[in-house]
Automatic annotation (TrEMBL):
The keyword Hydrolase does not apply. Its EC number is 2.7.8.8. Its main location: membrane. It is an enzyme of class 2 (transferase). PROSITE patterns: CDP_ALCOHOL_P_TRANSF. This is CDP-diacylglycerol--serine O-phosphatidyltransferase. Residues 217-252 form the CDP-alcohol phosphatidyltransferase C-terminal domain.
Length: 281
């Protein structure tokens, strides 16, 4: 008959046989990951809405996903809740929100009329976004970072690429005929944006710590931001077209500034070398 009492253990209870103990995690560590999950849900919902021909809501959800994906890292840093798990979650969310979702939305809206050519263009963009994000992750993991990395991106960043590739959808909302010619032109435009993502074009990031604003320009800048948001709420698609055009026009000026400072048209320092590729595959 088994005794109801536990056996005597002279060296104390053996906790190793009980498995790992569950430890409590502070809520502040969970909150940034919840934002990332919401961003993934918004991106996937945008895809569903596009297939249901609810295009304006689809674009709004993709842009919301991009916004949430852009603030989760900042929220984590403000709350001192950064973690390797959160970084991996954010990286996986990026390919959905900045690669797959925009590609499928623009394909369903315009590129499908170009048949296989439109689908190939959407594939190229999604793959380019994945390559762009992989290169960014590899460069971010380097211990010794170049000084220019705080001021320039190598190629157009993925969030901006998602905004740019949706230009055919914005134009369609403004009444432009989405016929087969429009589909072919949109396919070419999508491929161009894909190549801008994976290019070595120096793109000014505006994150340099040396950038300071004169005191007398602070209030006009704040007023300009308020005006932009107000116009965006009232004339959403017109403002988005203007924003895309302004961003594309700014690219040569960023490259020109780089050339004056470093003497080259592109960033020649290797972003992903053979050792990086072999180590991270």
């Amino acid at each position: 008959m088994e005794t109801p009492f536990p056996p005597f253990e002279p060296n104390g209870p053996d906790d190793s046989a009980r498995g790992p103990r569950l430890r409590e995690i502070p809520l502040r560590l969970v909150f940034p990951n919840l934002i990332t999950i919401l961003a993934i849900c918004a991106g996937l919902t945008g895809i569903r809405l596009a297939f249901e021909n609810r295009y304006e809501l689809a674009v709004a959800m993709v842009l919301l996903a991009a916004f949430l994906d852009g603030i989760d890292g900042r929220v984590a840093r403000l709350m001192k809740a950064t973690s390797k798990f959160g970084a991996q979650m954010d990286s996986l969310a990026d390919i959905v929100n900045f690669g797959v979702a925009p590609a499928l939305v623009v394909y369903v809206f315009a590129l499908d009329q170009a048949r296989s050519l439109g689908w190939i263009a959407a594939l190229i963009y999604a793959i380019a976004a994945g390559l762009r994000l992989a290169r960014f992750n590899v460069m971010a993991e380097r211990e010794n970072k170049a000084s220019w990395q705080s001021e320039y991106f190598v190629g157009v960043p993925a969030p901006a690429g998602a905004m740019l590739v949706l230009l055919p959808v914005y134009l369609g909302f403004l009444g432009l005929a989405t016929d087969r010619t429009f589909a072919y032109v949109s396919s070419i435009y999508t491929v161009v944006i894909a190549f801008l993502l994976i290019s070595r074009l120096p793109v000014w990031s505006g994150k340099s710590e040396g950038n300071r604003l004169r005191r007398d320009l602070v209030l006009p800048m704040m007023l300009g931001v308020v005006l932009y948001v107000a116009l965006l709420m009232s004339y959403t698609w017109e403002v988005m077209v203007f924003t895309v055009a302004a961003y594309l026009i700014s690219l040569p000026f960023g490259a020109r500034k780089w050339r004056r400072k470093y003497g080259t048209l592109t960033i020649e320092e290797p972003g992903v070398g053979d050792d990086d590729i072999g180590r991270h595959i």
